[in-house]
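User: Sequence recovery, please. Input:
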């Protein structure tokens, strides 16, 4: 099933010319300013909104994107602090709208027990162009380490470091989509000068635990919560999901700090990356948003039961 991407030469990593060609092909397809920003601003009556940075992409698309954090009001150092991130990959729609829906529907009910911090749309250019990468063809979700080069990731790192908080939990909201096979996996292989060999896209919800600091009980709590909303992904014929061995039903592991993933951006002992499948014939986009909310709620309930 090898798919040869239309940019670059097979076996040769991209240079600046190939990256420029890729960027030149990108188009704005939806609006962060119409679909996301008003929802963030509407939360001002019940939450504190902080601008933690901006993406100065005027040369790319004529826009500067503000980056916002949403914080619960009755903040107290005696309560555990939880982080929810969405839109690290801007094209993963329910990551953004799931984070917003959690704030709109559930966050306030938990804010007497925990401090809630949500970064709902970390990659707004990616949201608008429906892209995994930023304009420099860098994947922000491989860039959260100290040597990361994606501005989207590094501004999050700097903001969180400046807060000097001890996080109890971090839930990072993602999707796996059919476009991973039609666009992003072939594009990544072309950029790297390799051939992609893994084409598995799980039909259903799954989570990614941290291989370096696993918390399997948290993953189970999330899976159990999400199963009330949508179906959980089954393993492929090799007992794997996206090429990774199953650790328990609906759970695989990644080495998050080694890979520079968003899930490693804090020292929280409880971390999970969620993955929904919006292209499933058995799930709607609305169900995917609800599944993201159910994941955060399941994680919060687990935290509160075990602290």
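Assistant: Recovered sequence (307 residues):
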């Amino acid at each position: 099933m090898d798919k040869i991407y239309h940019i670059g030469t097979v076996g040769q990593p991209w240079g600046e010319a190939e990256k420029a060609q890729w960027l030149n092909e990108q188009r704005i397809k939806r609006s962060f300013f119409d679909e996301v920003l008003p929802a963030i601003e509407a939360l001002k009556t019940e939450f504190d909104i902080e601008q933690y940075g901006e993406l100065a992409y005027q040369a790319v698309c004529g826009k500067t994107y503000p980056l916002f954090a949403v914080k619960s009001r009755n903040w107290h150092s005696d309560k555990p602090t939880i982080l929810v991130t969405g839109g690290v990959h801007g094209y993963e729609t329910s990551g953004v709208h799931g984070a917003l829906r959690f704030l709109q529907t559930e966050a306030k009910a938990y804010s007497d027990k925990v401090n809630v911090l949500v970064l709902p749309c970390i990659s707004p250019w990616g949201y608008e162009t429906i892209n995994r990468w930023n304009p420099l063809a860098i994947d922000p979700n491989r860039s959260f380490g100290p040597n990361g080069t994606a501005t989207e990731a590094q501004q999050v790192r700097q903001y969180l470091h400046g807060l000097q908080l001890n996080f109890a939990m971090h839930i990072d909201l993602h999707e796996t989509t059919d476009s991973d096979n039609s666009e992003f996996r072939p594009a990544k292989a072309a950029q790297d000068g390799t051939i992609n060999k893994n084409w598995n896209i799980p039909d259903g919800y799954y989570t990614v635990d941290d291989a370096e600091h696993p918390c399997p009980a948290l993953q189970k709590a999330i899976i159990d919560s999400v199963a009330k909303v949508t179906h959980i992904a089954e393993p492929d014929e090799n007992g794997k999901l996206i090429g990774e061995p199953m650790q328990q039903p609906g759970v695989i592991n990644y080495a998050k700090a080694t890979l520079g993933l968003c899930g490693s951006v804090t020292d929280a002992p409880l971390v999970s990356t969620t993955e929904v499948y919006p292209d499933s014939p058995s799930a709607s986009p609305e169900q995917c948003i609800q599944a993201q909310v159910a994941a955060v709620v399941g994680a919060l309930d687990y935290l509160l039961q075990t602290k």
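The chain has a mean pLDDT of 96.
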